[in-house]
């Protein structure tokens, strides 16, 4: 049976407030309109919902039963609306520690300048959130991802501090920090391909590894050493004049950053954030 939503709204307000007049004030309509809605509802249901007296109304037993249902129903709707409004202003981002620390966090001030009402909450970890208001930014094998989900295809090169670049270019022996992934299913860092591309395959090289690119970059900075890593992660350091790229050719990798099932995670705020994220990856 179909009943009028405004009539249910009028009934719910009158039942909660115990007054047609108070219900009218809450709904910004006239007491006559409230009475009309409720009378129509009673006729539709073939029941009496209120016992009416000169200055007051009281719910009948049937009215109390319906009041419980309408109160719960409208509270559920209001809660859902509040959650939607909240989630449109809050984005939960989960990603790798390296991407969070080297790309996202240093750039957030630029996003907040454009979207001051949005709050970004960042966590690092391996779990993938499933609701549409979360954005899992993952690092993985490019060949296994949907092309539409990919944010960036990673290129690798060797980097060092600005003051040590000439020292490393003249060095007879190279010590390079790089990454050996904890996740053995990830494609390996393309160090050997880089050495061959640059004719360095026969040069003495000592390779030291961490399980996250962030640690190798930090250690290279501390020691004025070389680090072989994703170009995406060191863009902010290069822009700030802290790191520079060796005069060598970068090599493509089988790795990428991506958002799993990206098309299912669309709301206005998420779209704005992903567009901004693509911009800083490409241009920062």
From TrEMBL:
Source organism, top-level taxon: Bacteria
Family under the similarity heading: Belongs to the LysR transcriptional regulatory family.
Domain named HTH lysR-type: residues: 3-60
Alphabetized PROSITE patterns for the sequence: HTH_LYSR
Keywords linked to the UniProt accession: DNA-binding
GO molecular function (one): DNA-binding transcription factor activity
Protein name (Swiss-Prot/TrEMBL): DNA-binding transcriptional regulator, LysR family
DNA-binding as UniProt keyword: yes
Transmembrane segments: none
Any one of the GO BP annotations: DNA-templated transcription
InterPro entries: LysR-type_TF_proteobact-type, LysR_HTH_N, WH-like_DNA-bd_sf, WH_DNA-bd_sf
Top-level taxonomy: Bacteria, Pseudomonadati, Pseudomonadota, Gammaproteobacteria, Alteromonadales
Keyword tRNA-binding attached: no
SUPFAM superfamilies: Periplasmic binding protein-like II, Winged helix' DNA-binding domain
């Amino acid at each position: 049976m179909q009943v009028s939503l405004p009539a249910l709204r009028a009934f719910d307000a009158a039942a909660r407030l115990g007054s047609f007049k108070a219900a009218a004030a809450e709904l910004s309509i006239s007491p006559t309109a409230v009475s009309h809605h409720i009378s129509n509802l009673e006729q539709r249901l073939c029941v009496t919902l209120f016992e009416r007296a000169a200055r007051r109304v009281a719910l009948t037993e049937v009215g109390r039963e319906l009041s419980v249902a309408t109160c719960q129903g409208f509270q559920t709707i209001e809660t859902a609306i509040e959650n939607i409004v909240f989630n449109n202003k809050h984005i939960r981002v989960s990603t790798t520690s390296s991407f969070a620390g080297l790309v996202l966090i240093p750039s957030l001030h630029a996003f907040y300048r454009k979207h001051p009402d949005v709050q970004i909450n960042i966590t690092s970890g391996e779990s993938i959130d499933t609701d549409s208001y979360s954005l899992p930014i993952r690092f993985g094998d490019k060949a296994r991802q949907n092309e539409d989900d990919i944010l960036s295809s990673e290129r690798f090169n060797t980097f060092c501090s600005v003051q040590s670049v000439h020292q490393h270019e003249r060095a007879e022996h190279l010590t390079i920090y790089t990454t050996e992934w904890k996740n053995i299913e990830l494609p390996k860092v393309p160090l050997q391909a880089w050495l061959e591309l640059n004719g360095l395959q026969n040069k003495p090289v000592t390779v030291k590894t961490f399980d996250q690119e962030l640690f190798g970059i930090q250690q290279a900075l501390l020691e004025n050493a070389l680090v072989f890593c994703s170009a995406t992660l060191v863009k902010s350091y290069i822009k700030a004049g802290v790191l520079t790229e060796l005069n060598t050719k970068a090599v493509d990798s089988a790795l990428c950053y991506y958002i799993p099932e990206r098309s299912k995670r669309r709301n206005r705020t998420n779209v704005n954030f992903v567009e901004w994220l693509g911009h800083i990856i490409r241009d920062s």
